[in-house]
Every structure is written in structure tokens, then in C-alpha cells.
Amino acid sequence: MDKTHAKKNHYDLQADLERIKDAFTETASDVKGKTNELLSQSADALRERSQQACENVADYTSSQPFKALGIALLSGIVIGYLLHK
């Protein structure tokens, strides 16, 4: 193998490595973008569900205040008993 051929192969290897590096960079950027998009969608869905749960609790407590008060009182007693141990 002469020096010219070896030098040409070396440059081709450098070019191949550069293309691989660019492909990895592009893939990482795509994954980051999709991950951010999924996290944003998940946060929006969670925010919507929590708002709905708050509305449900508010509706329940306004329609059945004594039952809600009993549940809160019983929950407080149980939690207090468990924390006291």
C-alpha cells in the first residue's frame, strides 16, 4: 500500500467519522425535541386533571357538606393516630 492510498483512506475515515458525528448530533436533537414535546403534553394533561379534581371536590363539598366534614374529620383522626405512633 503506498502513502497516497493510505492518506486517502485516512481522509475518508475522517469524513465518515464527521458524518457519523453529525448523524448522532441530529438524532440527539430530535430526541430532545420529542422529549420536550411529550413532557409539555404530560404537564398540560396533569394540570387539566388536577383542575378537574379540584372542581369535583368543590362540587362534592358544596352538595354534601356534612359528609365531606365527616370524611375530613375521620381522615385527620387516622393520620394523627398513625403519626403519633
Provide keyphrases for this structure.
85 residues, mainly alpha
Structure description:
This protein is mainly α and 85 residues long. It has one domain (3-84). It is 95% helix and 0% strand. The protein is built from two helices and no strands. It has helices at 3-63, 65-84. Helix 1 packs across helix 2 (65-84). The longest helix is centred in the middle third of the chain and has 61 residues, at 3-63. The model has no long low-confidence stretch (mean pLDDT 87).
Briefly, what is this?
The protein has 85 residues and is mainly alpha-helical.
What is this structure's SSE topology?
Elements: H1 3-63, H2 65-84
What is the average of the pLDDT values? Answer: 87
The counted number of beta strands is 0
Overall structural domain count: 1
Helix proportion range:
over 70%
Report the β-strand fraction as a percent range.
under 5%
Helical run tally? 2
Give the SSE order as H and E letters: HH
Going by helix content, strand content and strand pairing, the class is mainly alpha
Sheet with most strands: none
Gap between N and C termini, in Å? 82 Å
Low-confidence stretches: none
**What spatial form do the alpha-carbon principal axes imply?**
elongated
| Cα gyration radius (Å) | 31 Å
